Amino acid sequence: MREQFGTFVPVELAPGVPATLVIGYRAGLAILNDPERFPADPRAWQETVPADCPVLPILGWRPIAVRNAGYEHTRLRTVLTAALDKVDLHAVHGIVERTAIPLINSFCTAGTADLVSQYAFPLVFAVINNLLGCPPAISEKAAAHLAAIMDAVDPQEANRRFEQSLRDLMQFKRATPGADITTTLLQHDVELDDDEILNQLLVFYGIGIEPVHALITNALRLLLTNDQFGGGIVSGALSTRDALDQVLFLDPPLPNNSISYPRQPTLINGIWLPANQPVLVSLAACNNDPEIAADERTGNRSHLAWSAGPHACPAKSLAYLIAQCAIDQLLDILPELVLAIPAEKLPWRPGLLQRAVAEIPVTFDPAPPVPVF
Predict the structure, then answer these.
(1) Most buried of the four, 96, 153, 224, 253, by CB within 10 Å?
(2) Is residue 316 within 8 Å of 208, Cβ to Cβ?
C-alpha cells in the first residue's frame, strides 16, 4: 500500500462502500487532533449507503462519544469519563486477582488449556461486570446472550435479549445504587436518558471487554512465541508492561477503529479527501510507518493504539491495569506455558475493526490449585 498509494489508501469497507485508509503516522496524528475538519459523526455518510450495508451495524450512529462530534461528543464523554474516574484502580488489582485464581484453578491440574476461552475472555467479562455493579443473575444472562451474538445464533433476537439484560441492570441499580459505573451513569448531573445510558453500557461491554481481552491474548501470544519477551519477563529484564506496549505497536486490538467523516472535501498533505466518506486512521499501520519506526521500542509508548486527540481512549489506565494483572497472575502460577500448536497455526478472529487471536491452546506441567483468600 505504501509503495502504491503513499499515506492515503483508497479502500472499500464492503462492496461499493468506499473509504480512505490512513497509514502514515504524522498524517494520522494530525487527523485525530483535528475534529473540526474530521468529525466522528457518521450520520451524513449513513444517508449515502443502503440500509442493509454490512458495516452499518458497526459504524452507524449511536448516542456514544466515539460516534459523535462537537457538543454531543463533549456531553457524552463527560459522563463516561466521570464514571471511569470514580473507579478505584487500587481495588481493581484485587478484583482481577480474585477473578483470575478460580479460573486458573479450573484448569491448572489438567496440564492443558485454551487461554482465550478459559481465561482471558471470562476474566475480563467478570471484571467489567464487577465494575458495572452487575449482579450474577443478570451478568450470566448477559454472557449467554453476548455469546449467542458472537456465535451468530439468531443474532437479532440475541441482541434484543442482551439489551434487555442491560435494561434490567439499569433498573436494578436504580433500586440498589452503589459505588459502581452504572450508578454513576444514572446519577450524573448531565442526566442521560435511558437510551443514552443503555448505549454507554454497550460501550463498556463492546469497547470495554473485547479490546482488553484481545490485548491480554495478543500479549500472551507474544510471550509464548518471542524468546526476547518471554525470557526477558521471566528474568526480570523486561516487564509485562513492555510486552503490552510491543503488542500495542504491532497488533493493537482495535487497529482501525478511529473513524471520521469530513463534512466537505478536505485537503491534507496535497490529497483531497471526499466529503461524507469514512476516513479510517489505521492505528496499526501508523504505528509501523517506516518514517517513525525504531528497532528498539522498549519503554516507547508513542504508539496510537489508544487513539489520540478528543477521542483518545479514556480507559487507558484501567485497561493497562487489568491486562497486566491478568498476565502476571497467570504467569506467577503457571510460568512454564508452552504453545500446543505451531505459532503460525494460531487462528485469528475475523473483523473489520478488531485484531485478536481466537485460540491459544497451551500445555504445561499440572499444578495444584491455589488457595483463594
Answers:
(1) 253
(2) no
| Pairing of the two strands 279-281 and 17-22 | parallel
The three-state (H, E, C) secondary structure of the chain, written as one string:
CHHHHCCEEEEEEECCEEEEEECCHHHHHHHHCCCCCCCCCCHHHHCCCCCCCCCHHHHCCCCCHHHCCHHHHHHHHHHHHHHHHCCCHHHHHHHHHHHHHHHHHCCCCCCEEECHHHHHHHHHHHHHHHHHCCCHHHHHHHHHHHHHHHCCCCHHHHHHHHHHHHHHHHHHHHHCCCCCHHHHHHHCCCCCCHHHHHHHHHHHHHHHHHHHHHHHHHHHHHHHHCHHHHHHHHHCCCCHHHHHHHHHHHCCCCCCCEEECCCCCEEECCEEECCCCCEEECHHHHHCCCCCCCCCCCCCCCCCCCCCHHHCCCCHHHHHHHHHHHHHHHHHHCCCCEECCCHHHCCECCCCCCCCECCCEEECCCCCCCCCC
Q: What pTM was estimated for this model as a whole?
A: 0.91
Are 285 and 21 spatial neighbours (Cβ–Cβ below 8 Å)? yes
Q: Mean pLDDT per 10-residue run, the chain (373 residues)?
A: 96 94 96 97 95 87 95 96 94 96 97 97 94 91 73 70 92 95 94 93 84 93 82 63 90 90 95 96 93 66 89 94 96 94 90 85 95 78
Q: How many residues does the chain have?
A: 373
Written as nine digits, the cell of 146 is 453476548
Alpha carbon of 181 to those of 86, 173, 202, 298, 307: distances in Å?
8, 10, 12, 34, 23
